[in-house]
Amino acid sequence: MKITEGRDATLQMIQQYQKSEAARDVNGKGALQGPPVPEEKVDISSRAKEYGQIKRIVDGSPEVREERIQELQRRIDNGVYRIPAEDVLKKMVGENLLDLFA
To answer: What pLDDT does 38 receive?
Structure first.
């Protein structure tokens, strides 16, 4: 194994770049005389684009709804915040069922 192997690759890339620069048209148009340099291309699926869009929307939305919190706090402080026992039961049973199947 050569220790300078990576360095040789870098040197070759620099030399290739210099050759392509030298092959450019003298009149400044910049037309390449040699073979074109390959370009890298990335294709993103439509689903990935959707995920990216959703992430931007979520990142842009506020994490805490202050007005909702203040309203609930006011109702709790005034003693008028009531949750029906049936709603509590449904939530408890629903969470337990989810735990069973998770």
So the answer is: 77
Nearest to 32, CA basis, from 43, 17, 47, 42: 17
pLDDT digits (tens, 9 = 90+) for 12-63: 777 787 777 776 654 455 555 566 777 887 778 888 889 999 999 888 887 7
In this structure, what token pair is assigned to residue 69? 């919190």
State the total domains in the chain: 1
Instruction: Give the contacts of 12 (CB within 8 A, at least 6 positions apart).
Output: none
The range of the structural domain enclosing residue 76 comes to: 66-91
> Tokens 């220790």 map to which residue?
3
- For the record, the structure tokens of 92 come out as 């408890």
